[in-house]
């Protein structure tokens, strides 16, 4: 019998009083008399890290999430001691730490309380596994709202929700089902027009409670590891998201074709079927840039092999597809079939690269090939080996992209659908169990894949897509929202998921258009296409078990709608490319929920459907059948209906009539939207004009356009074109000012300017202070104006 009551006690433990402190550079250590240490690190004036240990010392400081290439620095740091607390002051915030119990509170410089501990840090001894269950609770303000946390199938505003973070293969998940495939333990709080962020960088299974259990308390906890979190001060949500994205990293610019339309199915085989699909796209004039091969292209589902019955000469096939504008993307899963005659298996076995159970044997699980072993991607040597496996696929056969699936990791025929928790991982020199490594396994696989594809695709840019991810995965890979379902509810879920991923640092995301499981009606597929073309990653994907899901599987009306909206996406490619450039350069999300766009307008705080695509296009999908219109909220400002050019004043909810071949799309007044001609694939056409849709505004507006060679790395040497447009609208005049940066000379020589919403009839045009005759600049009565691209200021004058 255990008689030691201290061992029997399994309740919560708390820090006691501070007995000493040390200030070392950007960090301050507070020591309590029960051996708790709080390390406060000032990374920026608005970015503070709080790290706790309960054992009197810190373990090795290691994170897969943090982008170590980012440089941080603060402008001002002052530590003062008061009677009952210590105060840390930066040029943006003040942090008070109570001497009695380490509870902390954070204020702006006007003493407005942004965030404060309720119970604060506490922990529970984990006698079953060792270590601690670490916990944090914060007081929540009246009316406070919460956003973020990545891949969640629930309302945009998380107030009143409890969520779990444990990467899970959730086939055909439903609304409110949790957890899902990705883990992004980062949320944004908003109250009293002030935003802040919390990033809980802990890879164990974590939980967040947003005032569900207790009305005015927000809490988060993990089943192991440290209480290690970053506080990010806004006060604008834009500032919070940008800082978080900087902290965890941004991707490199993808090749432009990746932003085109992609077609996928489980599975397209044999070669004749693949050619039939690609030929039909060209026949119907529906633009498409990529065709995907699912697991059936392999020999017995063995990764890095080809089924020669289905694909007798893959190099020839891939080359022929490329001649027709199609890039080939193939799937690669983590499970390596146990087969002594299989070269990948033999190499990994010889090098001892597979994950092991706690008592020594290799971890074994069933996936598509049957019994498999699984590489330990947390080992740098394994990642290097894995990267080298892509040489034949990419550099010899010519595959342009790789798709990582089943990497939660997913395992069949076991109750928890994943590895046993006793599996051991190298964890880059910090050995641990699968409890700690589970949530980052998929990211490390995608990381290794990225380095392999990048190595062998050079001098072209790589393309990788993953199903499972942890914070920071966006540095290596795009993603999609997993095995969704062909239902109207899932169309609603997809809309929110991609918005949420965008403000959670992982902007390059899309959903399986039409739904992966089950079969959509033509109407549902059409409505999903109309939404999907406004997602950064745009791909139709479906399960072969549920029928065909190509555009021509439906009627002529759906084919025409698909062509119309996919063609619109191809017209908007320069706009989309510019969005992506701003994402990687400035951390600006490509999709912006209305609350991100205008957090001061409380009407945006609970909106789910509407979002800003880029900076100047407002989109609201149709999310129910038989709709002839819908109510939607137009944010403050002036917006043009894209289809009718009618001008709306925002800050209100309105009814918008729509046809089956339309959804509500609006353009911000004053915007300049760049457009390419419709191409069947990126690079098909050479053209001499860039169309600029100019939407009149009585006032000023700025627009930008980024372009480069559309692939390769010359843009990093300054060979890019960055156009800054400024429109100044007056009662009888429109001024367009242009400033160009970069050494890239775009292949076109002219701008075709489409003047929309002019309140006057044009009587005079001046270019760089020189009056121009109409016949010399191709001015047309329908307000199209063709001018040489080398101008600085254009005056359009009327009466």
UniProtKB/TrEMBL annotation:
<protein>
    <submittedName>
        <fullName>Glycoside hydrolase family 31 protein</fullName>
    </submittedName>
</protein>
<dbReference type="Pfam" id="PF01055">
    <property type="entry name" value="Glyco_hydro_31_2nd"/>
</dbReference>
<dbReference type="InterPro" id="IPR025887">
    <property type="entry name" value="Glyco_hydro_31_N_dom"/>
</dbReference>
<dbReference type="InterPro" id="IPR030458">
    <property type="entry name" value="Glyco_hydro_31_AS"/>
</dbReference>
<feature type="domain" description="Glycoside hydrolase family 31 TIM barrel">
    <location>
        <begin position="251"/>
        <end position="579"/>
    </location>
</feature>
<dbReference type="InterPro" id="IPR011013">
    <property type="entry name" value="Gal_mutarotase_sf_dom"/>
</dbReference>
<feature type="domain" description="DUF5110">
    <location>
        <begin position="689"/>
        <end position="757"/>
    </location>
</feature>
<keyword id="KW-0326">Glycosidase</keyword>
<feature type="domain" description="Glycoside hydrolase family 31 N-terminal">
    <location>
        <begin position="38"/>
        <end position="209"/>
    </location>
</feature>
<dbReference type="Pfam" id="PF17137">
    <property type="entry name" value="DUF5110"/>
</dbReference>
<comment type="similarity">
    <text>Belongs to the glycosyl hydrolase 31 family.</text>
</comment>
<keyword id="KW-0378">Hydrolase</keyword>
<dbReference type="Pfam" id="PF21365">
    <property type="entry name" value="Glyco_hydro_31_3rd"/>
</dbReference>
<dbReference type="GO" id="GO:0016787">
    <property type="term" value="F:hydrolase activity"/>
</dbReference>
<dbReference type="InterPro" id="IPR033403">
    <property type="entry name" value="DUF5110"/>
</dbReference>
<dbReference type="InterPro" id="IPR000322">
    <property type="entry name" value="Glyco_hydro_31_TIM"/>
</dbReference>
<dbReference type="InterPro" id="IPR017853">
    <property type="entry name" value="GH"/>
</dbReference>
<dbReference type="Pfam" id="PF13802">
    <property type="entry name" value="Gal_mutarotas_2"/>
</dbReference>
<dbReference type="InterPro" id="IPR048395">
    <property type="entry name" value="Glyco_hydro_31_C"/>
</dbReference>
<dbReference type="InterPro" id="IPR013780">
    <property type="entry name" value="Glyco_hydro_b"/>
</dbReference>
<feature type="domain" description="Glycosyl hydrolase family 31 C-terminal">
    <location>
        <begin position="587"/>
        <end position="673"/>
    </location>
</feature>
């Amino acid at each position: 019998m255990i008689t030691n009551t201290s061992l029997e006690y399994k309740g919560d433990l708390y820090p006691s009083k501070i007995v000493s402190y040390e200030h070392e550079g950007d960090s301050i250590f507070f020591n309590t008399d029960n051996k708790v240490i709080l390390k406060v690190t000032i990374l920026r004036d608005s970015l503070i890290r709080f790290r706790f240990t309960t054992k009197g010392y810190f373990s090795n400081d290691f994170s897969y999430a943090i982008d170590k290439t980012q440089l941080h620095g603060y402008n001002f740091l002052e530590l003062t001691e008061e009677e009952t607390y210590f105060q840390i002051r930066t040029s943006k915030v003040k942090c008070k730490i109570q001497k009695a119990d380490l509870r902390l509170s954070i204020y702006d410089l006007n003493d407005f309380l942004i965030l404060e501990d309720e119970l604060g840090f506490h922990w529970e001894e984990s006698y079953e596994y060792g270590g601690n269950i670490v916990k944090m609770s914060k007081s929540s303000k009246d009316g406070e709202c919460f956003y973020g946390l990545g891949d969640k199938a629930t309302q945009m505003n998380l107030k009143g929700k409890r969520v779990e973070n444990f990467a899970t293969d959730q086939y055909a998940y439903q609304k409110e089902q949790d957890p899902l495939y990705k883990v992004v333990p980062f949320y944004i709080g908003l109250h009293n027009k002030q935003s802040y962020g919390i990033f809980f960088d802990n890879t164990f299974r974590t939980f967040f409670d947003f005032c569900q259990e207790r009305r005015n308390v927000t809490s988060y906890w993990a089943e192991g590891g440290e209480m290690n979190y970053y506080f990010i001060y806004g006060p604008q949500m834009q500032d919070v998201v940008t800082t978080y994205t900087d902290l965890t990293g941004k991707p490199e610019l993808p090749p432009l074709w990746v932003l085109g339309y992609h077609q996928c199915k489980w599975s397209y085989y044999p070669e004749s079927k693949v050619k039939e699909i690609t030929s039909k796209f060209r026949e119907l004039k529906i633009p498409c840039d990529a065709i995907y091969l699912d697991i059936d292209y392999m020999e017995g589902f063995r990764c890095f092999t080809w089924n020669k019955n289905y694909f007798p000469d893959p190099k020839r096939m891939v080359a022929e597809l490329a001649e027709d504008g199609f890039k080939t993307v193939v799937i690669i899963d983590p499970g390596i079939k146990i087969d002594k005659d299989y070269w990948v298996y033999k190499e990994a076995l010889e090098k001892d690269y597979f994950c092991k159970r706690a008592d020594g044997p290799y971890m074994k699980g069933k996936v598509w090939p049957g019994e498999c072993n699984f590489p330990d991607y947390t080992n740098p040597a394994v990642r290097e080996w894995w990267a080298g496996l892509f040489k034949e696929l990419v550099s010899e056969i010519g595959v342009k992209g790789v798709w990582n699936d089943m990497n939660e990791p997913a395992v069949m025929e076991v109750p928890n659908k994943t590895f046993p928790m006793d599996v051991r991982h190298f964890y880059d020199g910090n050995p641990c169990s699968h409890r700690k490594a589970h949530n980052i396994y998929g990211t490390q696989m995608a990381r290794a894949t990225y380095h392999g594809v990048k190595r062998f695709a050079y001098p072209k840019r790589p393309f990788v897509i993953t199903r499972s991810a942890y914070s920071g995965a966006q540095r290596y890979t795009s993603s999609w929202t997993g095995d969704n379902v062909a239902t109207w509810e899932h169309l609603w879920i997809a809309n929110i998921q991609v918005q949420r991923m965008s403000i959670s640092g992982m902007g390059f995301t899309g959903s399986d258009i039409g739904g992966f499981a089950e079969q959509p009606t033509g109407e549902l597929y059409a409505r999903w296409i109309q939404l999907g073309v406004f997602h950064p990653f745009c791909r139709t994907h479906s399960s072969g078990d549920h029928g065909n899901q190509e555009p021509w599987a439906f009627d002529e009306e759906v084919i025409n709608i698909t062509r119309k909206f996919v063609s619109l996406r191809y017209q908007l490619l320069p706009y989309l490319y510019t969005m992506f450039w701003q994402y990687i350069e400035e951390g600006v999300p490509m999709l912006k929920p209305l609350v991100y766009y205008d957090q001061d307008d409380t009407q945006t705080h609970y909106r789910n459907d509407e979002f800003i695509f880029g900076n100047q296009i407002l989109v609201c999908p149709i999310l129910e059948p038989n709709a002839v219109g819908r109510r939607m909220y137009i944010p403050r400002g002036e917006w043009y209906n894209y289809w009718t050019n009618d001008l709306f004043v925002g800050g209100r909810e309105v009814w918008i009539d729509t046809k089956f071949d339309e959804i509500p799309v609006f353009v911000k007044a004053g915007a300049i939207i760049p457009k390419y001609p419709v191409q069947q694939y990126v690079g098909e056409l050479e053209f001499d004009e860039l169309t600029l849709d100019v939407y009149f505004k009585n006032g000023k507006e700025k627009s930008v356009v980024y372009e480069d060679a559309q692939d390769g790395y010359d843009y990093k040497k300054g060979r890019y074109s960055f156009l800054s447009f400024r429109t100044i609208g007056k009662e009888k005049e429109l001024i367009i000012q242009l400033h160009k940066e970069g050494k890239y000379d775009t292949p076109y020589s002219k701008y075709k300017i489409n003047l929309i919403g002019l309140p006057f009839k044009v009587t005079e045009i001046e270019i760089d202070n020189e009056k121009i005759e109409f016949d010399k600049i191709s001015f047309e009565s329908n307000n199209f104006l063709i001018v040489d691209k080398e101008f600085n200021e254009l005056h359009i004058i009327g009466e």
